[in-house]
Write a structure and sequence with these properties.
By secondary structure, the protein is α/β, with parallel strands linked by helices. The chain has a single domain (9-190, 217-242), classed as NAD(P)-binding Rossmann-like Domain (Rossmann fold), CATH 3.40.50.720. The chain has helices spanning 18-29, 42-53, 69-83, 106-134, 146-149, 155-175, 193-196, 200-209, 218-229, and strands spanning 9-13, 33-38, 59-63, 88-91, 137-142, 180-187, 240-243. The protein has a 7-stranded parallel β-sheet, with helices on both faces. Helix 2 links the parallel strand 2 and strand 3 (59-63). It is globular and about 45 Å long. The mean pLDDT is 97. Bound molecules: nicotinamide-adenine-dinucleotide. Residues 13-14, 16-20, 38-41, 65-67, 92-95, 115, 119, 142, 144, 187, 189-190, 192-195 line the site of nicotinamide-adenine-dinucleotide. The site of nicotinamide-adenine-dinucleotide has 29 residues, from helix 1, helix 4 and helix 7.
Length: 249
């Protein structure tokens, strides 16, 4: 299926690996130029950028900490400067620092809320003036089904992702009148480096929870994000779309 992002430019955070890299590849496949923002996986983001440039796309890899408002504004400006425009923003960067609530440290709470929630807001805030001025834009945030159902050992992560869902709905209302759609994708258990470190029994439980009886792949999340960035989803906003193989139901 063609989402046709030809001639567009998309900024993806956390694009060095995992779901973010898959999103960068998919939007490029659909014709979009791409700005790849990352911090710890910046070098990998630069490699993906070079790969997509070889396909004929304009790309730029940007090193930025998503939780830093100033860095977020700088990254959006750099993306617009390098690509000449900005049509879509995907707030994907995220981390986990799991632990039961009675043992969870302040540092683990702050780190997860800073990257997952503040980082998402920082980029939406930085891109909003661009989108409002051109009266068009698409924002896709990445939450998690664990932000909807809660998860043992993930009070910080679940709270951050529930926050992303609330943020998505508020921004959909604020930016809708300016022609900006804001939607959220909530993945279930997807095979990435983030989940590779989890114990085998946790992985097995996710497989058993899933109606489809398997884990998800990064390209299966990227396909839905690409759809939401496209004109095919132009009357969809404020929506939370689970991509979880039925894990939540
Ligand atoms: N993998 C899953 O099962 C799953 C499920 C639900 C939701 N998610 C969400 O999907 C998103 C991507 O997850 P993933 O599995 O690909 O993770 P990942 O750890 O493989 O990739 C995350 C990327 O974000 C980058 N990043 C982290 N902190 C950053 C910061 N401060 N500034 C800039 N970049 C930063 C990392 O360097 C990395 O490249 C996250 O928001 C995650 O919470 C993942």
């Amino acid at each position: 299926m063609k989402d046709d992002l030809a001639g567009q430019a998309t900024l993806v955070t956390g694009a060095g690996r995992g779901i973010g890299a898959a999103i960068a590849r998919e939007v490029a496949r659909q014709g979009s130029d791409v700005a790849l923002v990352d911090l710890g996986s910046y070098d990998e983001a630069a490699v993906v950028a070079a790969e997509l440039r070889a396909l004929g796309r304009r790309t730029v890899a940007i090193r930025a900490d998503v939780s830093d408002f100033v860095a977020a504004e700088g990254a959006v400006q750099e993306a617009v400067g390098a690509l000449g425009r900005l049509d879509g923003l995907v707030c994907n960067a995220g981390i986990t620092r799991d632990g039961v609530s009675w043992k969870l440290t302040e540092a683990a709470w702050d780190a997860v809320l800073d990257v997952n929630l503040k980082g998402c807001f920082a980029f939406c805030r930085a891109a909003a003036p661009v989108f409002r001025a051109q009266k068009r834009g698409r924002i896709v945030t990445i939450a998690s089904i664990n932000g909807m159902r809660g998860k043992f050992g993930q009070s910080n992560y679940a709270a951050s992702k529930a926050g992303v869902i609330g943020l998505t709905k508020a921004l959909a209302r604020e930016l809708g009148p300016s022609g900006v759609n804001v939607n959220c994708v909530a993945p279930g258990f997807i095979r990435t480096e983030m989940t590779a470190k989890l114990p085998a029994e946790v992985v097995q439980r996710a497989v058993e929870e899933s109606a489809l009886g398997r884990l998800g792949e990064t390209d299966e999340v990227a396909a839905v994000v690409s759809f939401l960035l496209s004109d095919r989803a132009r009357y969809v906003t404020g929506e939370i779309i689970k991509v979880d193989g039925g894990q939540y139901i």
